[in-house]
Amino acid sequence: MNDPGKDDARTLELLGAIEQRSDITQRDLAQRLGVALGLANSYLKRCAQKGLIKIQQVPPNRYFYYLTPRGFAEKSRLVGRYLTHSFSFYREASEACGGALRTCRGRGFRQVALCGVSELAEIAVVRGMELDIDIAGVLDPNAEVERFAGRPVWRSVDAAGRCDGFILTELAQPAVRYQMLVAAFGKHRVVVPDIIARFASG
Description:
Rossmann fold; 2 domains; alpha/beta
């Protein structure tokens, strides 16, 4: 529980789940939060200690969870923070993708591929349509989907090799993906959006 962003997201998910179902089980909560059962229990205890939820035991060994007034207030605060962050990210990402696409156009790239299935790739596809730039597909060796945002997903550099240029949209491991692209296609064919440039060069 050391990542404040992830911690807030899980707390928000937990409070929302309890608001919907007071009889939700810890196992169901763990699945919704995407964590182990023990960690879900830790979140419950911490929320109870903060006065965000009230726990009522109903025999035999059943628990009911209720949001307190403080819990409702915290849920509203977290929703507001999430929306502010989301809008800020979208604006910054949209500008960065637009700049990367214009760089591709300036280098004479006619067919562009994205590298990394992510929210950034989705925004890049939308900006590509707005700027009338052909995004042929998405290169992602770890992808679990065949298509993304209406484009084919390739798992090997050979499959994507026919494209003129590549825009880095990997968010989880941008530096690793950047090195892979440069090794396969050379620096000139790789464009890094400003929003992740500092990570990719690390």
